[in-house]
Amino acid sequence: MKCFFDFHLSTVGGKLVFLGNLAPKDARKLSMKDDFIQELIELWTGLNYRDSFASQANFTAQHIWNNSMIRIADKTVFYRHWANAGVMKINDIMASDLRIVSYSSFKDNFSFPVSFLEFCSVTSDIRSATKSLKLTLPAEKKFSKCSA
Hints:
globular
C-alpha cells in the first residue's frame, strides 16, 4: 500500500502534500492520475487548510511546499531538491532573529545548487505572504529585496 501512495504522490512531494497548507482549490489543480488519491487530498485539504495565523511564529512553522500561502506564478510550489536538502519549513530559511537569511548564508547552510532567482522567488513570496497576513518579520523593511 505504501508503494501505491509513494508512486502517485511523488510528483507533489509524497507525504508533504498532506503536511503543507494546501487550499482545496489548489488541491483540485493537482490533477492526480488516480481518482482515489485526488479525492483523498481534496478531503484532507478541506479539513486542514488555514488562511490565517495567530502569530508570525505560527506562520513560520508552516511547510513551504504545497502551501497555498506561498505561490510562485500563482501556483503552489514543491522543489524536490530543496526538500531533499532538508529545507521544509519557512523557519528553515530564517535566522535566529526571525529574518529571512541572505542567499550566501542559505548556500552556506544548505549544500545543494540553487540559483539566486529561485532563492529570491521563494523568499520574496514568503515576505509577500507575511504582508498579506498582516504579520511582520523583524528588522524587515516594508518589502525588502533579496540580498546576496
